[in-house]
Amino acid sequence: MTGIVGRMREAFRGEQRVDADDLVARLDAVRRFLAAVDGQVPDSRLVTAHTLVERAGTRLALSRDHTVVALAGATGSGKSSLFNALARLDLSPVGVRRPTTGVAHACVWGPLDGASRLLDWVGVLPRHRFVRESALDADDETGLHGLVLLDLPDFDSVQRSHRLEVDRLLGLVDLVVWVVDPQKYADRVIHASYLREFHRHRDVTLVVLNQADRLSATELPRVLDDLRRLLDADGLDGVPLLATTAVDQAGMIGLREALERAVTERQASLRRLSGDVDAVVAKLGELVVTDVPRAAPDEDTVRSLDRALVGAAGVPAVADAVQGAYRHRAGGTTGWPVVRGWRRLRPDPLRRLHLPGPAAGADQPAESLVAATSVPDPTAAQRSALGLAIRAVADRSGADLPAPWPDAVTTAARSRLDDLPDALDRAIAGTDLGMDRRPLWWRLVGGVQWLVTLAALAGLGWLLLGYALRALGLPALEYPRVGEVPLPTLLLLGGLLAGLLVAAVTRPVIRWAAGRARQRAEKRLTAAVAEVGDTYVLSPVRAVLDRYGQARDALRDAAR
Q1: Average pLDDT rounded to a whole number, residues 262-276
Q2: Given this model, what pLDDT does residue 496 score?
Q3: Cis previous bond, 297, omega within 30
Q4: Which of 238, 237, 244, 225 is nearest to 71 (CA)?
Q5: What is the DSSP string of 27-55?
Q6: Phi, psi at 106, each rounded to 5°
Q7: pLDDT by residue (tens digit) across 341-378?
Q8: pTM for the complete prediction?
Q9: Helix/strand/coil (H, E, C) string of 422-489?
Q10: Which residues contact 109 (CB under 8 A, 6 or more apart)?
Q11: What pLDDT is recorded for position 15?
Q12: pLDDT > 70: what percent of the chain?
């Protein structure tokens, strides 16, 4: 048995100390992870992490001078006898009927006051708390001062409430001593349901083969070797293994020394929480297994979205209206003054869409123009194209992400879909289409048209005056001549011909300039619509990807 104790001591020498500040930093990283994934990942997958953060914060705020150790085992393993033997008092009931231990009992070495808050948190009733402090002991129990030893209910109890209590307490204690007996040490329940789950808590796990006095000198090593093999298969290689017997204090020496070391080091609570962080990080790691896409969504996808938004927003119709309005307004300014009135009878194409005219909308906010905008509603094909483009943004942005992030990206991409039509309408109404100013050359050409028109009117008036004088029998006027042509006739015909010539020359220029105006307006409208797409579709997607990156960085920090 002495050799076994020696092996246990050697295993403890290899343990690394856990720095409290580092542990707090890791827990803070888990908190940052939870903040980053809030609303993106189902809460059901974060229960363990939330529990860890809450429990660890509470445990670190409570007594750091006490180490909570639990004796856990199956019915008949002798936990309560071991508990009483360590306390050297009959504290926990031991009987023939099983299970005997229905609730946890606690024994505190040292003053009870310092451990009361800790036991309140663990949930041990006051009437089941005992103090191991006696003047008769002299210094015999000094090495265990600070130990809070729990005798747990049997985890294989037929009472379901007992099993639930065991599971609850195993999540709270600092160190677990698993007690097995020679008859049931290989029981599947303890290995499959408990020991394997503690493979990340090797530094706070002890296994004792109790009732070793029932085995002969030749049987004991074989049983210990077989138990060691089972522990290694459970992932608990290196976990201290000790043979104990409660009927002889000599058989308790190794376990007492192990507990004294744990109490003296005051590392058990930190190691337990560190192991809990390891377990949580390993479980959460599947949520952020890939790096954040560097360019998501990609340029081709964004261009496809912009094209779909341009169609849904009615940009081509507005651009056509700009081209028509330019020609309409240019013709009204540069055309022959005599027929300009006829143009005014035709409505301005932009005003038919209730978009800002040359003097309208300058001092009005875009929102005030939305209700009057009559841009054609998107067709079924355009709505379908927009839906497919948004879906493509979501699919390509979340393609490499693990579940459930692709669903979160899709939800984000469609989160503001209902607000998109009004936003597009505001973007169209609020875009400066470049139609609020009349080009200088319009005025110059218009001035020329007025000059030639006045010349024609002057010639006509001159000729009519001459005809009137002759009709009244008055002396006829003598018209100046330019060559053989009378000047009034030259003014009339020249003015008419010059007006038609100016109109003919400016017509192709107007068409070219109207095309340029259309391109300019289409470019501005496309930019405004693209900004809407960025705000209402791409930004929510980027926000999810950014939170994914924050979660990944936080979990990487928590894993250190």
Answers
A1: 93
A2: 84
A3: yes
A4: 244
A5: HHHHHHHHHHHTTTS-GGGSHHHHHHHHH
A6: -125, 140
A7: 666 667 777 777 766 544 343 344 443 334 446 787 88
A8: 0.79
A9: HHHHHHHHHCCCCCCCCCHHHHHHHHHHHHHHHHHHHHHHHHHHHHHHHHCCCCCCCCCEECCEEHHH
A10: 132, 133, 141, 144, 145, 146, 147, 148, 149, 263
A11: 60
A12: 88
DSSP secondary structure string for all residues of 509-560: HHHHHHHHHHHHHHHHHHHHHHHHHIIIIIHHHHHHHHHHHHHHHHHHHHT-
Strands 241-243 and 485-486 turn out to be: unpaired
**Which pLDDT score, from 0 to 100, does residue 348 have?**
75
Check: CB of residue 287 under 8 Å from CB of residue 40.
no
Decide: residue 407, CB within 10 A, 0-12 exposed, 13-18 middle, 19+ buried.
middle
- At residue 256's C-alpha, the angle toward residues 127 and 222, to 5°, is 115
Across 405-431, average pLDDT: 91
Task: For residue 117, count other CB atoms closer than 10 A to its CB.
Answer: 14
Instruction: Look at residue 295 in the predicted model and tell me its pLDDT.
Output: 66
Query: Which helix (DSSP H) or strand (DSSP E) does residue 105 occupy?
Result: strand 105-109
Residue 418 tokens, joined: 């209902």
Structural contact between residues 39 and 90, judged by C-beta atoms closer than 8 angstroms: no
* Both structure tokens of 449: 């048209």
Instruction: Work out the end-to-end distance of the chain between its first and last CA atoms, rounded to an integer number of angstroms.
Output: 38
| Average pLDDT for 51-71 | 93
Q: Are 502 and 449 in contact, with CB atoms under 8 Å apart?
A: yes
Helices then strands, each counted (H, E), the chain: 21, 9
Helix (H, G, I), strand (E, B) or coil at 76: coil
Parallel, antiparallel or unpaired: strands 205-209 and 147-151: unpaired
Q: Which H, E and C letters describe 169-221, residue by residue? A: HHCCCCEEEEEECCCCCCCHHHHHHHHHHHHHHHHHEEEEECCHHHCCCCHHH
Residue the block writes with tokens 């590392």: 267
Q: Which residue has the higher pLDDT, 233 or 292?
A: 233
pLDDT of residue 156 exceeding 90:
no
Q: What is the mean pLDDT of residues 150-167?
A: 88
Pairing of strands 147-151, 105-109: antiparallel
Angstrom CA distances, 380 to 230, 369, 375, 383, 386, stand at 67, 25, 15, 5, 10
Strand order in the sheet with 105-109: 129-132, 105-109, 147-151, 67-73, 175-180, 205-209, 241-243
Instruction: Give the pLDDT confidence score for residue 500 in this predicted structure.
Output: 83
Q: How far apart are CA 262 and CA 204, in angstroms?
A: 9
